[in-house]
Amino acid sequence: MFLCPQPKKLELQGGYYSFPVDSQPQIFTKITPMLSQKESYRIEIDAQGVHIEAADEAGVFYANVTLRQLMKNYRGCLPYIYIYDEPQYYYRGFMIDSCRHFFTVDEIKKMVEAAAYFKLNKFHFHLTDDQGFRVEIESYPQLTAVGSVRYGSHFGKAHEDEKEYGGYYTKAELKEIVEFCKERHVEVIPEFDVPGHTSAVIAAMPELSCTGAQITPQTTPGVFPDVLCAGNEEVFKVIHAVLDELLEIFPSKYIHIGGDEVPKAHWNGCEKCQAKREELGFKTMEELHSWFSSEIALYLKQKGRKAICWNESIKGGNVENDNITVAWWMDRTDASLKWANSGAPVIIEHFAPYYVDYPHGMHSLRDIYMKDPQKTRGLTDLGKASIVGIESPVWTEYITDFKKLNEMCFPRWMAVAERAWNQERRPFADFLKTAQFFCDILKEMGVTPAQESEWNILPYTRLEQTLGFVKNNISKQVVKEFFRGKKK
Q1: DSSP 3-state assignment of 329?
Q2: Do 327 and 308 touch, CB atoms closer than 8 A?
Q3: Dist CA 441 CA 365 (whole Å)
Q4: Which DSSP state fits 427?
Q5: Of 106, 215, 363, 393, most Cβ neighbours within 10 A?
Q6: What's residue 486's pLDDT?
Q7: Which residues contact 213 (CB under 8 A, 6 or more apart)?
Q8: What is the per-residue DSSP string for 442-465?
Q9: pLDDT for res 470
């Protein structure tokens, strides 16, 4: 039979429970304190029907997901079976970038439905970046009036035009997404990326930058010098106001505050930033960067929430770590390694292989499936215990439509789901057959996975795909990131 993720324990007990093909089996469900781990469940199928015991409502949901998958394997009957299951990690994440390419509410729902079917449970929603501000903020309507619209899209041959491009989610639409996710036990984690990747914010509010220059949202990929001024108190006033509105929309435990790729050129030439650095007794602007992220995390702590930030935020070495989880995507300084080995929480989302916006030939299904976060170089036993989960992002500079998004994410997110739920890896050939089985089911959900010929290809074809991607789409910055990722 085909199940994804593979349960921790499965025993066939001989015989079959039959029921009419067009009806549901008899299901008996209860929540029991006997199962102490969150999200865990037991299924036993016998002559009377399906017996589900779970630790909590999430466990009931996942038991029913497994049952739905079983019923795709059999028509009108189910084998007598015993299943015990629990997740390896409580954070099993996927990220969708709606800044470079905007996806409708219905499209987002389809992606969530597919992800939840494989027990992924954290939806990291990337809502602000240089190329667009995508969330309605009532206290600062200019953020979407100005920041949600760019005047062209120049992301390589796949996405190259001069047309105005815009879009944002209203609060009502975001609450609709949150409710949809809640029903599927998926936590929506919004990202408000600061102090870098803020060209769209600064386009709407130039007074928040170090220079005050009027700019427009960016139309190309890359890392840009216009960042929020760390010495301007008005910046924190605006950030707090935006966060307050996000907290009203999103009831999530976590809020992602970005913090990646922050050029310091404008800070170095800014009197306010220099004065703030001296006031705080810092020697470097990296320390100022870490302080900036810590201040936002402290604000969230006061609101009863926790912060996630990209690993660049901790390079200064002075981050208060009691309310921050680090998203470890690429780190040549080993700051993330030291963070994890100190016992502070990390989410593993290494560029290679978890970034699924890159071709299957670069980050293949096999690469993702064989990746073991516990074997990250340099992790101590405490560091391994500090891993709270795995996340796989899809950035959308090179994704122009929903079909392409589907093909980049699936079946690779199935491999992410499998390894985040169950670290006891089955043979890849077995998993491959499972992925093949579920592709038709994904299509029934309105999600079209990549053709099987794309999943695991020969080395020379992988090189061909890599070079073709670089030629057609890539900036120098992305090439640099790719090879840095491979070194890690």
Answers
A1: coil
A2: yes
A3: 18
A4: P
A5: 363
A6: 43
A7: 206, 226
A8: HHHTT--PPPGGGTS--HHHHHHH
A9: 74
Which amino acid appears at position 174 of this protein?
L
Structure tokens at 451: 């053709």
3-state secondary structure of 440: helix
* E runs forming strands in 86-202: 91-97, 122-126, 128-129, 132-133, 150-154, 160-165, 187-191
The first and second tokens of residue 416, run together, are 């992410």
Other CB atoms within 10 A of residue 57 CB: 11
343-376 burial string, b = 16+ CB within 10 Å, else e?
ebbbbbbbbbbbbbbbbbbbbbbbbbbebebeeb
- How far the first Cα of the chain sits from its last, in Å, is 37
Is-contact 91 416, C-beta < 8 A? no
CA distance 396 to 470: 15
Relative to beta strand 150-154, strand 306-310 is: unpaired
SS3 at position 82: strand
Pairing relationship of beta strands 77-85 and 41-46 according to DSSP bridges: antiparallel
Residue with tokens 């320390």: 287
Q: Mean of the pLDDT values across residues 415-428?
A: 95
pLDDT digits (tens, 9 = 90+) for 233-253: 999 999 999 999 999 999 999
Cβ-based neighbour number of residue 90 at 10 Å:
14
Higher pLDDT, 200 or 155: 200
Q: Which amino acid is at 99?
A: C
- Whole-number pLDDT of residue 160: 84
Q: What is the C-alpha separation between 237 and 235, in angstroms, rounded?
A: 5
Tell me the pLDDT of the chain averaged across its residues. Answer: 94
Name, in order, each residue with C-beta under 8 angstroms of 345's C-beta and a sequence gap of 6 or more: 325, 326, 386, 387, 388
| Token pair listed for 375 | 């074997």
Give which of 268, 258, 270 is closest to 313, Cα–Cα.
258
Structure tokens at 116: 């939840």
Q: Hey, which residues does 91 pair with through a beta bridge? A: 389
**Cβ proximity of 386 and 343 under 8 Å:** yes
Q: Which residues pair with 347 in a beta bridge?
A: 327, 389
Query: Could you read off the pLDDT of 362-373 as tens digits, one per residue?
Result: 999 999 999 999
Is 136 in contact with 68 (CB distance < 8 Å)? no
Q: What is the pLDDT of residues 166-209, one digit of tens each?
A: 999 999 999 999 999 999 999 999 999 999 999 999 999 999 99
Compute the distance between CA of residue 348 and CA of residue 121 in angstroms, rounded to an integer. Answer: 15
